[in-house]
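Suppose a colleague, Dr. K., hands you the sequence of a protein chain of 169 amino acids and asks what its three-dimensional shape might be. Before reaching for any lab equipment, you can write down a predicted structure in C-alpha cell form. Begin with the sequence itself:
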Amino acid sequence: MKKVLGAAAAFLFATTLASAWQYPSGGPPSSGPVLGLGRGSSEPKREKPPEFRSLTGVVLDQADSPVKDAIVYLKNRKSKALTTYIADADGAFRFTNLSRTTDYELFAELKGQKSPVKTLSAFDNRTNAKINLHVEPADEKKGEKKEEQAAKKDEAKIETKEEKKDQPK
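The predicted structure, expressed as C-alpha cells, is then:
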C-alpha cells in the first residue's frame, strides 16, 4: 500500500511540475473568465466611445492663406438645422457637441467667394475631425458660359421641333 501511495504522490508531483513548466504564468490560457481561486483574468471592460464629437478646420484662400471673418455654415442633414461660425483672425473655426450618428454638410463663404461643400459622415469615427475649406472667387465667366450653353440647347430643341413639323407624315 505504501508503494501505491508513493507512486501516486510521485505522479501528482510530476504532473504539477510539468504543468508549471509549460505554463509559467500560472495556468493554461483561457478564452473567458475562469471561476476559481484567483486564476485567470477577467476580460477588460470596453470603454464606451463619447456620444459627441467636434469639428475644427481653417478657411483658406487660393494661395493657402487663412481667411479672416469668413462665415462657415454647418448643416445637419437629418434635421436641416443650420449653424454658423465666423472664422477668427487665423481663419480657424470650431463646432462642438456634434452627434456621432448624423451627417453634416460644411462650406464657407466670404464676399461672394464660396468653398465647395464638404461632408462629415456618421461613418467617420474620429472624435476630433478636421476639415479645411478653400474659398474660391465667384467666376462670372463660368455663369455666363452655362447660360449660353442652356440657350443653345433651347435653340436646338426648337429647331428639331420645327424640322419634325415640316416633314411629311
